[in-house]
Amino acid sequence: MVVEFFAFGVQVYAGHRGEAGATIRLGLSVSWAIASAAAVGSSHLRGNTPCQDAYLVDTLPMILGEPALMAFVADGAGSASMAEQAAQAAVGTAAEHCRQHANMIGASFDAAFISQLVRSGRAAMVSLADNAGLPVREFACTLLGVLAFRDQTLAFQIGDGGIVLDHGDGLALAITPMSGEYVNMTHFLIDDDAETRVAVQTSARVERMALFSDGLQRLALSLQDLTPHAPFFAPFFQTLGKVPSPTREQLDQALEQFLSSDKVNARTDDDKTLILACRVA
């Protein structure tokens, strides 16, 4: 079967994909349909620079009766020489911190837990910098994530990019993307005050969600009021919710093609990462 979707004036057909690549494959994870992809920005291609975004989607063990979904996106700073490695380490460290915490008896996932996660992530960046003999600023990256439980959702963000959630009453931006003191500046996981600066939102059960790096902010959000641009998201969620399970893993290829398309690159020259997830029966 061939998957088709049409978004942002881009029509994409994707056939079956073979063995999974380095990125997380999309598929049905118990009660979630998930699509995720990243694409290198056109400016990075011109400069022969690799994609400096990283993402991770996985489930946590049975918590309150069902597995919880965790999703993370990190974006290495363009000024950081180890941006790619930093982003990969950030999402990996965040996921491992969640796994270890989930195994603790009586573990609670709240703002205090997120502070610990950020502290752990910053410590990982410092360790990488020490081992490489480099200043920690060379490992600067943003980090955002969502933990979706049966009846509760925990979102957090340090830096730019976006998290869009739908609790059954429409799409809404969970946290305002962070900007720094100057234009095109933001905050990073390595910052001394990252643990206190991180923004955290606790909300009710989420039905649909999207996480994206700042390369998609101009497409995914209305810049006037920072609200989700519904026409951007609608085709993805409509397709994700109706594609039969055996063909869902084809959507990662289609999503990557969309992110790499000329029309998208005409609006942004940065790396682009998009994670989409919706609950299914």
From TrEMBL:
Output the Pfam families linked to this UniProt entry: PP2C_2
**Gene3D superfamilies xrefs:** PPM-type phosphatase domain (3.60.40.10)
Any coiled-coil ranges, and where?
A: none
PPM-type phosphatase domain span: 40-256
Q: What is this protein called?
A: Protein phosphatase 2C domain-containing protein
Q: Which organism is it from?
A: Ahniella affigens
- List the top taxonomic levels of the source: Bacteria, Pseudomonadati, Pseudomonadota, Gammaproteobacteria, Lysobacterales
